[in-house]
Amino acid sequence: MSSQSTVVGSAPLLEVRDVIQRFGGITAVDGASITVRAGTVHGLIGPNGAGKTTFFDCIAGIRRPVGGTILLDGHDVTNESSVRRARRGLRRTFQRQQVFGWLSVEDNVLLAVEWHGGGGGMIGDLLGLPSRRRRERERRERVEAVLERCGLLRLRNELAGGLSIGELRRVELARAIVDSPRLLLLDEPTSGLEDHEIEELGEILDQLAGTDDCGVLLIEHHIPFVMRHSAEVSVLELGRLIAHGTPEEIMRNEAVQDAYLS
């Protein structure tokens, strides 16, 4: 819960203003606004069907909202592609694991840093230039450190397609944090994890939120986990944000208790 003390004075990293998303005649997100501050974990909770994942899709650029504005580090990214947002430092995990099953755990994580290029282009590849070898060595060192951090070193050479759900969750997390994210969106990260793995995940989140380099927006049904590791919590019901505050305030909120916690 170390991130809670950093809320006051922390810079807004993500600002979502009055976002609306519709599917035909159904309004999945109805004028939702949220602010995620650098150096904090912000929890987003709500019952199934509340629109949480659709809200994430709008923030990540997978779906373009029909209304509202999304700012990342002060830049209006409302109409930017998901790739462009990723270049700005937005990383995301998914409720359903999305890994390359035919690749090893290490190669799955290594892919997340390949977009930087190796330096020297095709000539660098052919000649094995020192700059290319240095960058490759630095990347692999970074990947190894993240694999260790996520408890995946022993699985580094295993094919991702043969892993358990909990192991796949850790692969996705490693892939999301290996390239120093600015904003990390986590969709149900504790699902399928053992108790000790949930504790380890909490430690990683606390570390990420320990500096102003990263902010985390967390969708999670594991309420004790959210309340323990979030500085702020927002509650979504039927596409509308019905409450926002500290974990203590949310737990005391009667509207939240009626809609979700009862």
UniProtKB/TrEMBL annotation:
- Which GO cellular component terms are attached? plasma membrane
Entry GO MF terms: ATP binding; ATP hydrolysis activity; L-isoleucine transmembrane transporter activity; L-phenylalanine transmembrane transporter activity; L-valine transmembrane transporter activity
The UniProt keyword set, sorted, is: ATP-binding, Nucleotide-binding, Transport
> Which SMART domains does the record match to this protein?
AAA
What InterPro entries does the entry give?
AAA+_ATPase (IPR003593), ABC_AA/LPS_Transport (IPR051120), ABC_transporter-like_ATP-bd (IPR003439), BCA_ABC_TP_C (IPR032823), P-loop_NTPase (IPR027417)
GO BP annotations, alphabetical order: D-alanine transmembrane transport; L-alanine transport; L-isoleucine import across plasma membrane; L-valine import across plasma membrane
Q: Where is the ABC transporter domain?
A: 14-261
According to UniProt, the name of this protein is Branched-chain amino acid transport system ATP-binding protein
State the organism named in the record: Parafrankia irregularis
